[in-house]
């Protein structure tokens, strides 16, 4: 009986865990933490409210030196990646990101980006693919973020 109760508690804790951020192919680094404004630990997906600004913070380490860090963002709708243009994708040239290039091997480094959720966006469930790429277009980190625009 005790093993069954333990198994049920483990299943419940998985079902009620924070938004399921997943690595989607990081090649030359690894993220250690992610925070998104207005996305609580108890949320199964991040709610992105139209007409507001959202801030994402990604803390990561690198496996090798990196000269360029650029953000590439897509919204995945019904399996189709749709580019999400962000202002100043080159993190090295934008002091607001907190990234100063070149990056030495190791870390931690913290990337910060604030972006608008425009009122003309449709209300939709979306998976956000956020990549930070190096000068060779390799993913330093690649993160899938479950979200819903409301």
TrEMBL record:
Gene3D superfamilies found in the cross-reference section: 2.60.40.770
Q: Which residues form the MD-2-related lipid-recognition domain?
A: 21-147
Keywords, A to Z? Disulfide bond, Secreted, Signal
Give the GO cellular component terms, alphabetically.
Answer: extracellular region
Record's subcellular location: Secreted
Question: What GO terms are given for molecular function?
Answer: sterol binding
Family annotation (InterPro entries): Ig_E-set (IPR014756), ML_dom (IPR003172), ML_Npc2-like (IPR033916), NPC2-like (IPR039670)
Would you indicate the residue range of the signal peptide?
A: 1-18
For the biological process aspect of GO, one term held by this record is:
intracellular cholesterol transport
Domain of life, per lineage: Eukaryota
Chief subcellular location equals secreted
Family, similarity comment: Belongs to the NPC2 family.
PANTHER family reported for this sequence: NIEMANN PICK TYPE C2 PROTEIN NPC2-RELATED, NPC INTRACELLULAR CHOLESTEROL TRANSPORTER 2
**Protein name, UniProt field:** Protein NPC2 homolog
């Amino acid at each position: 009986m005790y093993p069954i109760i333990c198994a049920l508690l483990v299943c419940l804790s998985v079902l009620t865990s924070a938004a399921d951020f997943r690595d989607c192919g990081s090649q030359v680094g690894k993220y250690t933490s992610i925070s998104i404004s207005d996305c609580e630990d108890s949320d199964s997906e991040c709610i992105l409210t139209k007409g507001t600004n959202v801030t994402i913070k990604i803390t990561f380490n690198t496996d090798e030196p990196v000269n360029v860090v650029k953000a590439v963002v897509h919204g995945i709708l019904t399996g189709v990646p749709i580019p999400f243009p962000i202002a100043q994708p080159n993190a090295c040239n934008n002091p607001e990101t907190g990234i100063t290039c070149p990056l030495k091997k190791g870390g931690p480094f913290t990337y910060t980006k604030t972006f608008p959720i425009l009122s003309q966006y449709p209300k939709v469930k979306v998976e956000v693919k956020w990549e930070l790429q190096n000068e060779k277009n390799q993913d330093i980190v690649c993160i899938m973020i479950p979200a819903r625009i409301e």
